[in-house]
Amino acid sequence: MNTYTTYETSTILTVAGKVLDAINRLPELLKDHNLALPTEYSDTQKGGYLSLYRRNPFIKSGELLLLAKIGEIPDIDDADFGSKNEKYQKYTGKKSRALIYEPGITTSEKTTLGIKGGIVINDDLVLSFSGRTELEDQLLVVVTTLVCKQFFYDTNAVNASNIFKLESIQGENPFLSKDIVNTVARYCAT
Predict the structure, then answer these.
(1) Is residue 125 over pLDDT 60?
(2) Predicted structure pTM score
């Protein structure tokens, strides 16, 4: 099992913030590269909560390493949760816990919860985000994982096509096209 230092978790938080900024600017970034913006894009949500857990799949437990608000969350009421802040905080935890308690599953949409936006990295780390649409939440965790690959993978040869294979990310998410993932990742590398 890997250990993650304060430096690594703060780097992950910084990268996730840059990814969120890229997603918030996605119409402009895709237009600059002559790429189509998926119709599912939402420009109303600008922030959310990121969580990072270390998990032990053998005993179905997890240790919270990081829970952080990134971006802007409107200070408005939510009928089911009290506020949007509370809602996103609870949902990022739900996504992570679903992956902790269901070993062998690598993405949160494949859990009994069925919500996109959580990913298992190297069997012992769970990264999740909630605050934008589910499809965009999933893009955020995938690109954050890709950009922070030196912390997560033993190889330096991870690229967008490998991460899809490594994490079994498939399905109907237009934001996970290689062109969009690479555009967002390049933005974060600048």
Answers:
(1) yes
(2) 0.87
